[in-house]
Amino acid sequence: MASGVNDCGLYANPKGTPAKATSPLEPAPDFSLVLGGPLFQLFRRAHLTGDTLELLYRRVLIIPTVAWLPLAILAIVGHPATGVISLSFFSDVEVQARLLIALPVLIAAEIIVHSRMRLVVRRFLERRLVQAGDLPRFDQAVESAIRLRNSIPAEIALLLIVYTLGFWLWGTRIPITTATWYALPGGRWHLTAVGYWYVFVSIPIAQFILLRWYFRFFIWYRFLWQVSRIKLNLIATHPDRCSGLAFLGKSVYAFGPILFAQGVMLAGVVANRVLYRGESLLSFKLQIVGFVAFFVLITLGPLVMFTPQMGAAKRKGLADYGLLAQRYVDAFAQKWVNEGGAQSEELLGTGDIQSLADLGNSYGMVRDMRPLPFWWEDVARLALVTVAPFAPLLLTVFSLDDLVTRVLKIVF
Length: 412
Known about the structure:
15 helices, mainly alpha, 412 residues, single chain
């Protein structure tokens, strides 16, 4: 490994300073999408993480505790001026789901993304998809991603969005007509004591961590877009049916926890509407389907940027193997059919027929090559992860016995 390169990022040290590899022909070191940025450095100095995301239990325990525990304490010792509330803190499914489930999942997801995505960059070089002449462009794409990942202005901008646009969106939600644990009637800004911590600390923590993941999505797909502009060495006969790029479709499974956390947040909102406002779960079916489709699309959709090169590889493969097949079958027919001089013993012992079958299999593999680096099973898995948090809400529509019976009928 080149000098100055370690586990904290491709051509980056733990403090995020880019460093050139000593040779463009050396194997790519590890690249991390999450080991960098001002918040990461703050966590390192606060001993909430190590150089490679150690001490996960501290982050999962401390950050949600800061967001949730003061709410619980203030909700217990304090109460609205009216003395009667329509929704208590511990009954608020949306808040519990957001702070006790979604937030820890978003924090823990860094480990999964780090361990899975760090290998994808290496595969572009290990599989020789990027040829020697294009290595400088590939290196530039990597370094650009690292600079953006480590950008201080970018994370400051995310924080400003949380405390401006985030506040505005929260304030435009359904108006409060009866007292709740965090606000009094007359407007969302008639906050209780616990409401101030909720609005100015708890919600921003959850929003910032979620927006930071969106920013990482952007960095990753920007990097892939730059790589897709490079002429890749795609082989149409690759057994993965994606000219060697199927690993991209599998790599997005690392984002599954983020999709799950998003599902938890929406499921919490729907649960409050169903449990406390008497709305039906079925009335949200279009929103849920649209939600799942949207997040699966933004996760897998950007991989379509590789489709033009995959299509070109397939066309070239069909042309090349079609020409090769034509030459082979002409020679085969001339030797074994047209001349008619072959003896049965020679035919039984020859490898020509097996070679013809192998050539047909190769041509069939090119013909069946997919136009995308992912397929339906990838879509289904991400959709299942996203919709999973809504499963408990089915108990508001079906009894437990009915639900178990329906599931068994589907499975068996």
